[in-house]
Design a protein that fits this description.
359 residues, 70% helix, transmembrane, membrane
């Protein structure tokens, strides 16, 4: 698939609809919507501070990632509007915005967040930090390798000492080993990656959205390997893959870690990936489950369809607009689940009475 080429908006007027993306507000908004939808699917009531902490955490991660990206691109490279914005205001974010956001997040974590969520967030935060190190330091071979080895050694010891459930320890430990293997076994060139960063990003994003819900359900629901978390991870991964495909035509210096560089034909396979996710959701729906969870699965299915529509129309739109619409494709169906009336499941249950996969 190819997208319409256009002059980057980084050097021209930024339209109003692109500002949430430029300011990195789109991903945090999607995160708290997914968290709210999962909470409603499992009948969990979350504190406002939990939503605020997730929003601030995701926002800081995306800001740091985009600031770090600015150090690895050439000065004459044509960049997307958001990357140009962060490179232009790099000092402001490094010395003021990120420290202030970190202090606010620390206060929320220590004063407002339940201790169990705090420790789980610490473990996940370490993995995210390792993810940023793995992909942000790609241009510095020695720092990249030594940093990953030291981080994995220290992180492995700390991880198993934290009061975190064993499934989370196994999951995070596996991620540590995988990232360490990538660091040590990395080829000299940047054209090869065993594990696409879009897949890692999508899974970590889904874990972050489900972490609090899993805690309040006593580690029984919305755990890292539950169907709803896995389908959300796949949906977020496909969103990231789509964005990589759209921006490949916009940037003169594409991300060497992007899936379009490691798997050049991924755009052609993208429709099959969407169909595979839709099939997984349909298989999940065929199993017996509570109706609120059915609504969440239906939202994921509808988001998958919308991503397919955006992919089909991408040739007629600018890369920036495609990126925004890909995020909207996830946000709108999930928002519909969050805002659905409380009595909707009862009405749907009456209408669908007798369908075997509902209870």
């Amino acid at each position: 698939m190819s997208v319409a080429s256009s002059t980057s908006t980084s050097q021209s007027h930024i339209p109003w609809w692109l500002w949430p993306n430029v300011l990195s507000l789109d991903a945090p908004l999607v995160a708290i919507l997914c968290q709210a939808a999962l909470a409603r699917a499992h009948k969990v009531s979350l504190l406002p501070s939990v939503y605020a902490a997730l929003f601030l955490t995701v926002w800081l991660i995306y800001v740091v990632d985009r600031v770090l990206d600015g150090f690895s691109v050439k000065k004459d490279a044509r960049l997307s509007a958001r990357h140009a914005f962060y490179r232009r205001h790099r000092s402001l974010f490094i010395f003021f915005v990120v420290p202030a956001g970190g202090i606010a997040l620390l206060w929320l974590a220590l004063a407002e967040i339940p201790e169990g969520i705090f420790w789980r967030g610490q473990a996940l935060g370490f993995i995210v930090a390792l993810y940023l190190l793995h992909f942000a330091a790609r241009g510095h071979r020695l720092i990249y390798t030594v940093g990953n080895i030291m981080a994995c050694m220290v992180g492995g010891v700390v991880l198993w000492a934290l009061p975190v459930p064993v499934p989370f320890k196994i999951l995070y430990g596996t991620v540590l080993v995988a990232l360490l293997a990538l660091a040590v076994g990395r080829r000299a060139g940047d054209s090869f990656r065993f594990l696409p960063k879009e897949v890692v990003c999508g899974y970590l994003f889904a874990i972050g959205c489900s972490l609090s819900v899993n805690f309040f359900t006593g580690d029984q629901l919305a755990h890292p390997f539950s169907p709803e978390v896995l389908m959300l991870a796949l949906l977020c991964s496909l969103n990231c893959i789509a964005v990589s495909c759209y921006e490949r035509a916009a940037d003169t210096q594409p991300d060497p870690d992007g899936i379009t560089q490691t798997w050049p034909h991924i755009a052609r396979l993208y429709p099959m990936l969407l169909i595979s996710l839709a099939g997984f959701v349909c298989w999940t729906l065929s199993r017996k489950m509570p109706l609120p969870l059915v609504l969440f699965c239906a939202a994921v299915l509808f988001s998958t369809i919308l991503l397919g529509v955006v992919h089909h129309l991408a040739k007629r739109m600018s890369p920036e607009l495609c990126h925004v619409l890909a995020d909207v494709a996830i946000a709108v169906p999930v928002l519909a689940v969050v805002l659905a009336p409380e009595h909707l499941p009862k009405i749907a249950s009456l209408l669908l009475e007798g369908v075997p996969f509902l209870e």
